[in-house]
Amino acid sequence: MHPLAERVLKGDVRATARLLRAIDDRVEGWSEVLASLHPHTGRAWVLGITGNPGAGKSTLTDQLIAHYRRAGLKVGVIAVDPTSPFTGGAILGDRIRMQRHALDAGVFIRSLATRGKLGGVSRSTADSVAVLDAWGAKIVLVETVGVGQDELDIARLAHATLVVMAPGMGDEVQAIKAGILEIADLFAVNKADRDGADATVRDLEMMIGLGHELTHAGAHSLHHHHQGLDLEAMKLKIAAEEWLPPVVKTVASRAQGVEALAEAIARHRAHLASTEKGERRRIERAREALRVVFEDLLLDEARRRLAGPIEAAAMQVAGHAVDPYSAAVALVARFGQGA
Amino acid sequence: MHPLAERVLKGDVRATARLLRAIDDRVEGWSEVLASLHPHTGRAWVLGITGNPGAGKSTLTDQLIAHYRRAGLKVGVIAVDPTSPFTGGAILGDRIRMQRHALDAGVFIRSLATRGKLGGVSRSTADSVAVLDAWGAKIVLVETVGVGQDELDIARLAHATLVVMAPGMGDEVQAIKAGILEIADLFAVNKADRDGADATVRDLEMMIGLGHELTHAGAHSLHHHHQGLDLEAMKLKIAAEEWLPPVVKTVASRAQGVEALAEAIARHRAHLASTEKGERRRIERAREALRVVFEDLLLDEARRRLAGPIEAAAMQVAGHAVDPYSAAVALVARFGQGA
Fold first, then answer.
1. Identity of the residue in B149, B283, B317 whose CB atom sits nearest the CB atom of A115
2. Distance between terminal CA atoms of chain A?
3. If you placed Cys at B292, which of A185, A275, B122, B160 could pair as Cys (CB 3.0 to 4.6 Å)?
């Protein structure tokens, strides 16, 4: 094993920082070091934290760090900011907010400004989670800004996803799409001392209930049609498998509601452990971790191996001698045949 | 040629809408139809319009539509919203704002909500631009929200990029990163009737000047070191090749500054036509159009052909029998050898 990997496994903060930088810079050999750490990972609980800008995600993350540190756990934090061209201030803000943990050797905070990175935010996040897991984090908080596909990809890398909202953002709850309901395991209505907090909680709970009924309509009608089966057992099974995302009110700036939120997170974790969902989630996470690396490597390899033909085809496209689709089909065929 | 393609080339709005939907739904054969249109494209001028949410991009876009319609040009509009999970309201807003053009057969407005789409926003945008070009648009406005990598990719598909800002957004200008300076050909300071508009213009112009000096420092020192060369000719050449992004003040809600902005856009277009930059930009656009299709097709093909092995590898990763990196390397090798 690479000496750097050994030091990471011993919990060495500087070695961990160095490995993360090497991964960022795509230093030769970094992937092998990461690969050698894999057997020592899988112990960290990964919580995705997402929501609109302004909902107070960073302050809540900061409070969760403090909570888990009081419980004596090593905490990893990954603050993802895929929106940097226009919102360059966000990362700096995060860093300032979480500064108080900077001298705590039990906390490792990593900012990921991923604009322009090869392979994008999913790959960098997956790699960072693995390193912090190997470093010894018992919980890894992955904070992202709610910006589309990256969001959903990152949720697939987490054991649980917490969606943070703030009251008084008007149509917020209605604007939430099915995609968010699918990934949300827990909701926090932060800044709950503001007007409209209870209305936001109510709206969310109604939406969760509705989403749940739609999802389970099939199961219930099945239930009614098989009178011969053990109805009570089936009901219990449905009840045990069910998880209605709880909505927790917090005021992160005053540390209110954080314990209740942490308790809800723990209940969700216990729920996963006691049902088949935990196993399914484990497989989904592995599938996603493989996918992001595979697609990254495949594109890398194709760009490298076909650099010449790609450039020649681009010139033909520019000269309208061929259309991009036909040119791309030919390039894919060429690559797939070992060209 | 496919009958649908023929109708698109004749400017049939319904056929164009149908083809765009077919592309969206990845209907069998759509790519071939698109490919057959390619020889008939390249006539539309593509203007990317980007900037922070709240800067008034949609209102300004609406005014630019009106301007080009007064000039008798067919206008295509693509409103890209890659941020849908949390900002689902944005698209609806765009549609409402541009509604007044809905009955104008010379305007085609397309909303792209690309979350979860295979190939992502770049591919969909490139395809939509090609279709609107074939439909007969003389100008295609591509409006995007400022959210990272997609932004930059889309800029590469455009002939020119307009960055819209609003005054009084505090650190906005300072938060702008080099990436934006690289892609911006024009700036609009919209809502210029608000306090701080002049300061924002000043800050922008200072930043542009600074960026310009840094970029051209090399050229100037070269200039000084080759006294034997024709200095005057070189100066003229530098002057002709130079383009300092102009900063135009607008109040889109009252149609102020729109003519001046359109004039700046026209000047930029003339600048490209009169320098080698135009040709370079054309090749860059072709390269980008090819890249998005190629990467999309390659990933599609790999997922399809390796579905079984990928799933088997994911199970091994889940069982910690292999790490994601080693599994991915094996899958890439397998695909590259025609497996």
1. B149
2. 34
3. B122
| Residues B248 and B312 reside in one and the same domain | no
A147–B contact, CB cutoff 8 A: yes
Identify whether B291 is part of a domain.
yes
In the block, tokens 């360059």 appear at A88
Average pLDDT (A275-288) is: 90
Same domain for B290 and B319? no
Q: Are the Cβ atoms of A328 and B294 closer than 8 angstroms?
A: yes
Q: How confident is the model at residue A290 (pLDDT cuts 50, 70, 90)?
A: very high
What's the mean per-residue pLDDT of chain A?
A: 82
A287–B332 C-beta distance less than 8 A: no
- For residue A182, what pLDDT is reported? 73
Q: Which residues of B touch A286 (CB under 8 A)?
A: 314-315, 317-318, 324
Cβ contact A82–B285 (<8 Å): no
Same-domain check for residues A204 and A321: no
Q: Is pTM, for the whole model, over 0.90?
A: no
Tell me how far apart the alpha carbons of residues A186 and A60 are, in angstroms, rounded to a whole number. 14
CB-based contact (8 Å) between B29 and chain A? no
Residue B114 burial (10 A CB sphere; 0-12, 13-18, 19+): buried
Structural domain for B192, as ranges: 41-301
Same domain, B85 and B231: yes
Within 8 A of A305 by CB-CB distance, chain B residues are 336
How confident is the model over B185-226, as pLDDT tens digits?
999 999 999 998 999 898 888 888 876 665 555 444 444 444
A9 has a chain B CB within 8 A of its CB: no
Q: Do residues B124 and B191 share a domain?
A: yes
* Residue B91: per-residue pLDDT: 44
> What gap in Å lies between CA A55 and CA B16, rounded to an integer?
41
CB-based contact A79:A141 (threshold 8 Å): no
Residues B139 and B274 in one domain: yes
3-state secondary structure B42-54: CCCEEEEEEECCC
What digits encode the pLDDT tens for the residues B85-102?
444 434 444 445 566 777
Nearest CA in chain A to B281: A318
Check CB contact of A286 with chain B, cutoff 8 Å: yes
**One domain for residues B182 and B331:** no
Pairing mode of beta strands B160-165, B139-143: unpaired
